[in-house]
Design goal:
It contains nine helices and 15 strands. It is α+β, with helices and mostly antiparallel strands. Helix 5 runs parallel beside helix 9.
Length: 458
């Protein structure tokens, strides 16, 4: 197979050939009107194809800039595609499992009438996603070569393959920007339809590895992390997970190998809760496009220290924290406050200077402890000793697994599931692709100089 450089040079030569043929026809003293009309046509075609070839990198950059300015990107498309494929394959696995169970239980055999159309819809969705991936591969991986090949066909003298070249050019240009904007388009429709109904299917499904860190990029072990979506002006909790000793979220009761399920089509608002204090996690909100593949890092910017013993330090100003064995020291050079919270029995000693102390008691979940709130001045110093392992009563927070508890995948096998699959994973994407194909058709006729739905300008 020839490289794109080969087609590039061949296109240049064909453009020059068209131009010189046009000049030659102009100069030949043969007064045939049908023959002479090719002179200006070939000169114009040669100049146009050469101009398209030279402008190619600038056109591609402009298209990508437009897609980026409208909120699209290839990473966003990859996120949407992986989330849609994950949902389709997960749903397929559940449907096949339930179908096998129903077939062996005579009493439940009638339920297969619901399973069958859902299975067919998921099959169509997987086939449709396969077609999208094929187009993505053509555009993203082979796009540059196909675009040059299109200009090559476009530059063949006497317009022998002009229509085919115009179609290649239009297809690559339209789908380069169209695929990047596809998640933006579908997300806008999803947000609108979700505000009009309570269907959880519109939110999408994505399994990701999420790590929670404090302001010094250290893990926050044992914390509870809550995820919300906005419905109108109201926050709706969709999941609640716990962080392990390394700060990675997991779903108690479900083994996902340090992966948690989250919505993939709408913005998320995350909060970390520990010792009765809620911390906003950044980025805030978590846009679907902010996912990096299957991993996500969340930062609690006001949390400066945390331990497995539910000891936390938070402040509204910059705090320098140093740790030696079980001794934790803090210094600050600005005013504000520092709050140090312990579970009862986890603190051994405490010292401070240039700060005013106010001590309170707190209760959270099944835990209780003391809160040391310091009003700071410049040069404040605080030090305490935290036990490495202190006695803590059982943690009784209510966890919510997004896939199993909010979406309730196992109980979604119903006629409404069929409607949601067809609406959100087939109808909307198909309408968008139909729009892209229509634009491609119109642009190809415009570039090819054919009369039709658009005027001939070239």
């Amino acid at each position: 197979m020839h490289s794109s450089n080969y087609y590039y040079l061949l296109t240049v030569n064909l453009s020059l050939l068209s131009f010189y043929l046009g000049v030659l026809i102009y100069a030949i003293p043969i007064p045939l009107k049908g023959f002479k009309r090719w002179g200006p046509t070939l000169i114009k075609d040669g100049l146009l194809s050469f101009t398209l070839l030279i402008a190619l990198p600038y056109v591609l950059k402009f298209i990508n800039d437009v897609a980026s300015s409208l909120g699209g990107s290839w990473s966003y498309f990859n996120l949407w595609f992986s989330g849609s494929l994950t949902f389709a394959l997960s749903g397929k696995a559940i449907v096949l499992t339930l179908s096998s169970i129903f077939s062996k239980v005579p009493v439940l055999s009638s339920a297969r009438s619901i399973i069958t159309p859902i299975n067919e819809a998921l099959n169509l969705d997987i086939i449709f996603l396969g077609g999208i991936w094929a187009i993505y591969y053509m555009v993203k991986v082979l796009g540059h070569s196909l675009l040059i090949f299109g200009i090559l066909l476009y530059s063949v003298p006497f317009r022998i393959s002009r229509d085919a070249g115009a179609w290649f050019i239009s297809f690559i240009l339209v789908f380069t920007i169209g695929l990047q904007l596809m998640p933006v388009f579908l997300s806008s429709l999803t947000s609108y339809t979700y505000n009009a109904s309570t269907s959880p299917m519109s939110l999408g499904l994505k399994y990701v590895s999420v790590k929670v860190e404090n302001a010094y990029s250290k893990p926050v072990p044992g914390s509870l992390v809550l995820f919300f979506i906005k419905r109108g002006n109201t926050f709706v909790e969709v999941s609640a997970y716990r962080a392990n000793s390394n700060g990675f979220l997991y779903s108690p009761g479900y083994n996902y190998s340090n992966l948690v399920s989250l919505p993939s089509n709408v913005p998320l608002y995350a909060y970390l809760e520990e010792d009765g204090v809620a911390f906003k996690l950044y980025p805030y909100p978590i846009e679907p496009s902010s996912f990096n593949g299957t991993s996500l890092k969340l930062i609690a910017e006001n949390l400066f220290y945390s331990s497995k013993g539910y000891t936390i330090v938070f402040s509204n100003s910059k705090v320098n924290v140093s740790e030696s064995s079980n001794n934790v020291s803090m210094t600050t050079y600005s005013s504000g406050y520092v709050d140090v919270r312990f579970v009862d029995g986890c603190a051994q000693s405490f010292s401070y200077k240039n700060a005013t102390l106010r001590k309170t008691h707190w209760h959270w979940d099944n835990l209780q402890g003391s809160s040391y709130n310091f009003t700071l001045s410049k040069g404040s110093y605080i030090s305490f000793i935290s036990k490495g392992s202190c006695s803590i009563r059982g943690f009784k927070a209510k966890y919510v697994d997004y896939a199993m508890n909010f979406i309730k995948l196992p109980s979604l096998i119903s006629p409404s599931l069929l409607k949601d699959i067809i609406l959100y994973y087939l109808t909307f994407p198909f309408l968008y692709f139909s729009l892209l194909i229509s634009i491609t058709y119109g642009l190809s006729r415009l570039i090819g100089g054919r009369r039709g739905i658009v005027p001939r300008v070239l």
